Amino acid sequence: MANLVTSLCCVVLAAVVVAYAQKRSQLAARAQYEQMGRDVTMQCGKLDSNASVSWKVNGTDVMVQHRLAGPRLTLSKVDLHHNGRYSCFEEPAGEMRDYISLHVGLPPTEPSVTCRSNTYPKGFYCSWQEPHTTHIPIFFEVDVQHNQKSLEVNRDPVHKNRCRVEFPEVFSTSPYKVNVTAFNALGKASTTLSFEEFTIVKPDPPERVTAKPIRFNPRRLEVSWHSPSTWPDIESFPLKYFLRYRPVIREQWQHVELSESTSHIITDAYAGKEYVIQVAAKDTEIGTWSDWSVPFHATPWIEDPLPITSTTEVDTPTETRTSPIPDAAAVHMM
């Protein structure tokens, strides 16, 4: 008999727990997004207009400026301080009737969009960003058109606001059109960018820039570098280079534009002075110059001091003798 009672108690307890869990799930916080600076009204569930309701935010009584009309709570000119979880209770029993998570923010503005091909002629990438903080989650949709056809857009796995697009053809004269739409719970905004293929070609900077002193040449530095590893076909699409250098003690750069060579000898360096050296790259036919490479520091050859082979003898200074001053008597006798 005792076992039967215990079993019934367990069943009843389980039913109560399930019922409570179901009730809690029904009262899971629902999100409400509102624009900053506006008045916001929250409705307590489906209670009618005559219901008497009290409100709490994050477990405490609502203290900010507000109006209460039956089951509706109105907050005036909301800002980020109004964010929180609002719960309402029907009086007089004080039973929770609703649970609202308020998120205050702004609708998106037109995103800034840039496109560039650093892997020409393989493809290009586009990146975008929202100029202003919206304070609430924001999402982006990207559409790329060429010859009135939509191209496949591959989102970058590392940079969330970047995508890559393969060139459908090389040397195309038809423009590309990229549309980026930003949207969140409060609205959306779009930017459309149109460009021709050759205008977005820009390699990455040259890599592994080095400069070595040339022995017995105190005014020369031998500079070398490698083409950017992201440039896929250096043979078919060669790069030309732009070298700049200056002594650390001066602000003015000296420049040398080179053809396809990946080395150059500086012949007018100041002897013994440390130099800063950078290189940029550009397709020989189209596009623009890359950014400058990481600065490399180098100093021309400095002659080693001669070794000491013998000790130099130091002459002992010769003692100087002076005649004694004659006394007054002797002078008088003279």
TrEMBL record:
<keyword id="KW-0393">Immunoglobulin domain</keyword>
<dbReference type="InterPro" id="IPR003961">
    <property type="entry name" value="FN3_dom"/>
</dbReference>
<keyword id="KW-0732">Signal</keyword>
<protein>
    <recommendedName>
        <fullName>Ciliary neurotrophic factor receptor</fullName>
    </recommendedName>
</protein>
<dbReference type="InterPro" id="IPR003530">
    <property type="entry name" value="Hematopoietin_rcpt_L_F3_CS"/>
</dbReference>
<comment type="similarity">
    <text>Belongs to the type I cytokine receptor family. Type 3 subfamily.</text>
</comment>
<dbReference type="GO" id="GO:0016020">
    <property type="term" value="C:membrane"/>
</dbReference>
<dbReference type="InterPro" id="IPR053073">
    <property type="entry name" value="IL11/IL27_subunit_beta"/>
</dbReference>
<dbReference type="Pfam" id="PF00041">
    <property type="entry name" value="fn3"/>
</dbReference>
<feature type="domain" description="Fibronectin type-III">
    <location>
        <begin position="107"/>
        <end position="204"/>
    </location>
</feature>
<feature type="domain" description="Fibronectin type-III">
    <location>
        <begin position="205"/>
        <end position="302"/>
    </location>
</feature>
<keyword id="KW-0677">Repeat</keyword>
<dbReference type="Pfam" id="PF24031">
    <property type="entry name" value="FN3_IL27B_N"/>
</dbReference>
<dbReference type="InterPro" id="IPR036116">
    <property type="entry name" value="FN3_sf"/>
</dbReference>
<dbReference type="InterPro" id="IPR036179">
    <property type="entry name" value="Ig-like_dom_sf"/>
</dbReference>
<dbReference type="GO" id="GO:0004896">
    <property type="term" value="F:cytokine receptor activity"/>
</dbReference>
<feature type="domain" description="Ig-like">
    <location>
        <begin position="37"/>
        <end position="88"/>
    </location>
</feature>
<dbReference type="InterPro" id="IPR003598">
    <property type="entry name" value="Ig_sub2"/>
</dbReference>
<dbReference type="InterPro" id="IPR007110">
    <property type="entry name" value="Ig-like_dom"/>
</dbReference>
<keyword id="KW-0325">Glycoprotein</keyword>
<dbReference type="InterPro" id="IPR013783">
    <property type="entry name" value="Ig-like_fold"/>
</dbReference>
<feature type="region of interest" description="Disordered">
    <location>
        <begin position="307"/>
        <end position="334"/>
    </location>
</feature>
<feature type="signal peptide">
    <location>
        <begin position="1"/>
        <end position="21"/>
    </location>
</feature>
<feature type="compositionally biased region" description="Low complexity">
    <location>
        <begin position="309"/>
        <end position="323"/>
    </location>
</feature>
<dbReference type="InterPro" id="IPR056621">
    <property type="entry name" value="FN3_IL27B_N"/>
</dbReference>
